[in-house]
Please model this.
Amino acid sequence: MNRIRNLQGSTLVLTLLALLWVVVVFVLLVLKPSVFSLATVTTILQFSTILALVSLGQAIVVMAGGAGIDLSVGGIVSLSAIFGMLALKAGLPSFLLPATCVFAGAVLGAFNGILVTRLSILPLIATLGTFFIYSGLALALTGGAAQSGVPGWLLIWGRSVFSSIPAPFLTIAIPVFAIAGIVLMWTAWGRWIYAIGFNERSAHLVGIPVDRARLILYGLSGALSGAAALISLAWLGSGRPNIGQNLELESLTAAMLGGIAISGGRGGVGGVFAAVILLVTLKTGLLQLNVNTVWQLGIVGALLVFVLLADRLSQRWR
Model:
């Protein structure tokens, strides 16, 4: 029954997001007909790949309830990219760079999980603190300078395009979301996540290891951020200590806009994926219209507030 409700809810969210995306594209085309080209579509999908992975991690943490949130995702992306490049310069074989970035992200995410589950620190406070730690460490290790030296084979993959669709979008983002959707809807792990988010006390009573599951989810969120860091290296050709800037706000907005309930226990990854495309399309269009980045950030924040208010009103209506 819960599976049917989630499928119905996901379908509604996807329909609404598709309509909203059509409106956004129509308005942008009216304001500036040349705003969208094949190059612009490629850029949108490339940025979407990074944000999508981070948003997926954010979504599963929020979905598991317990006031779960991961404000450190931007810091993890930045620090994982820097760790990978520094390890490469220290003599790490280049073929281990992908595993290094993902592993670094998983460790940083697991540290968040330890703070939340073992030390019982409120997730908002714990991940806000680690955000500053991770972001500050990325800057301290590099002096704020980008780290060059990304292997050529990784650049070829990161910058390859098939019919205007970036290779990382095809080979990483789509498969990861497909796997996440299958796990959430058709496996015991997925049912655990929904059960923990819906009623943590009942989940404890039926024998679900809530703390262990939540710790794993924070580690998984970190690993996804590490994968996003790898894609930033492959695309930009350098490790930038500020590459994760604002990803915490954007990923949370994408998760909420995609139908993930802030209280947990409800939502699906399809809506999150669609919300990412919508957000990046909107930001890219505003950039093409020469709208200041400060206003772009303000629009994303306003969207987050709107979604939270809509979620609260819908809960009262139900």
Residues 2-31 form the longest helix (30 residues). The two ends are 17 Å apart (CA to CA).
